[in-house]
Hints:
With 79 residues, the protein is an all-alpha fold. It has helices spanning 10-34, 41-74. The chain has two helices and no strands.
Amino acid sequence: MAIKITYRYHMFLFALIMSASAALTVSGIIIYLHFEGHTGFMVKWFTAFFTAWPIVFIAILTIAPVVNRLLDLFVEEFQ
């Protein structure tokens, strides 16, 4: 049986995984579109990713609760 993490860490883990996915995708696309040649692409990509990831992580932790409250005004839960 797998050991599960308590639900109180849900938002933190969501932000960690979402920010890593978003930063990896966006930094890769931006570097690809603006990078001349293929030599050193991976190094530039991961440098950009590790710069962007903490910024995106903090942004998600900060913005997500506000977005969730806003959505609660417009989204109805099915019963």
